[in-house]
Specification:
The protein is built from 3 helices and 4 strands. It is of the alpha+beta class. 4% of the residues are buried.
Length: 135
């Protein structure tokens, strides 16, 4: 199995383009080497900073939140659906887009099993930083 790190780097930025009332990511020193002989920081960030998973509960009140989903769910072989044409501001991914991407995979001999892990590739972060208001 090839392991691919999907992490996005977060950096100090105290305003959030998509929710101005939230802090995107802020690292605040609370203990310094000079004062205590060690260093410690406070981290404040929105749950949407960097790489994250939206649980079903994020969209549906009666669905599981992230701590209710077994970690094994997030580890394994994955299939990438190419949705790069949707990697622009205000784009919506519709069922037809998913079907078209799945059809292209099927033409290559790749079938999607009912319990498959799917990655939706839009390439949005390649052209937009989280600090960009269109994010």
């Amino acid at each position: 199995m090839r392991i691919i790190d999907l992490s996005m780097t977060v950096s100090d930025w105290d305003r959030n383009a998509f929710a101005p009332e939230e802090t995107y990511f802020k690292l605040r020193p609370i203990v310094t080497w000079e004062a205590k002989g060690f260093v410690s920081n406070m981290v404040e960030m929105t749950v949407h900073a960097g790489t994250h998973i939206d649980s079903p509960h994020h969209f549906f009140r009666d669905k599981p939140s992230i701590e209710q989903i077994p970690v094994e769910t997030f580890v394994g072989n994955a299939i990438v659906l190419d949705l790069t044409p949707k990697g622009h501001a205000n784009a919506s991914i519709a069922p037809d887009d998913l079907d078209a991407s799945a059809k292209k995979l099927a033409e290559q001999g790749i079938e999607i099993a009912p319990d498959a892990i799917l990655l939706l590739r839009t390439d949005w972060p390649r052209s937009h930083a989280p600090t960009d208001p269109s994010w």
